[in-house]
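I have been asked to look over a protein record a colleague put together. The record follows directly below this note.
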Amino acid sequence: MKQKFSSTLIVSVLVVGFVVMFLSSALKGLYQVYFVDLATHFGGGRAALATAGSLFVLTIGLVSPVVGWLSDRVGPLSTVALGSVIAGVVLLGVTLVGSQLMLFTLLYGLLGAFALAAMTYVPMGILVDRLVAERFKAFAFAFVTNGTSIGFIVLSPLWIMLQQRVGWQPVFSWVGLIFLVPLSLALYWVARTVPLKPDPQAALVKHSVAFLLRDSRFFVLALSFASCGATMAFIDVHLVSFWQGEGLPSSVQASGLSLLGVLELVSGLMAGWLATRYNKGLLLMMFYLLRTAAVIVLLTTPGPLGTYLFAVLFGASYLGTVVLTSAFCFALYGAEIKGKVFGLLFLVHQLGALLATQLGALDFDRHQSYQLTLVGLATATVMAALASLWLVSARVAAEASAPPVAEAE
């Protein structure tokens, strides 16, 4: 039976989730903004340092099922508390490794990735599912996960400002202490107060996803979603470095990131609203074309005007591809297996991110520019847009050829 909670308690826990998502953006934001400083400190070049970022994005995909299992076993809030502790250990630990790039790579790429996965989408989804009434779940999940977007808007300019004045070790240490002490203790208390016990019947439900190997719709979604991951990873890891190489003023960089973050908020909400009214395949194609246009602007239009135009286009597409891919996943495969299917899609998303992270670094180290990488990203998103056309009639086809789903006893 679903546990009953007061409205005040529900709102309070959702605010806690929002704050965690807000702060969790620091794990990626600090690496992004201090990327050049870190590469200089460890002395291995950008390609060598990007290995940590590549491992990070791959590990997030690989550990997401583990985080889901852990959330089921011990509860989402306990999982988030564990993630906060590990995040603090990672941020403090990397300041103590000297110039050992391998130790930094293992700490950030493995433990840092687990920490981020344990504080974001998977456990927060389970938290909302167990805490909120059915008709309010979508709004509640949007509210909580928007913490990451607002963190991008608010914290990215802060990191850029600090990067001009303070070395990376003090900043990593300060943020690490916030995760390790006050946030972890607060989450531990909330987890004890609101245990959110798992549904004992959930473990009895078993569904196979082997049919996906024969489902062309899944492969279209997955390959398209890989381009989404690739472009997002370039933004996360290489965008600030690209702007720095272009000689863009830090004030323009900061305002560009904030503008991108604002449009990211609008993108997710707008995509959700449009998906209830228009064909999802056409919408997905349009969002991927927006992504293509953003990459082309970044490639061809330097300076403040091009920066702001890029931020508008990329921000407008940022969560649209994620929301519509998940909407397709849920519409095509139904509630019985959507979690497993989306988990696999997210893994492919992270593989695309891994590829773009490493190729971007290799491109710069060999050619002192990101031009070839950006051309590749533009090509990939165009192909994703064309593939999305195949999905225009997929919803109708799904009703006639829905995959077999085992029923719970």
Summary: Residues 396-409 have pLDDT under 50 and may be disordered.
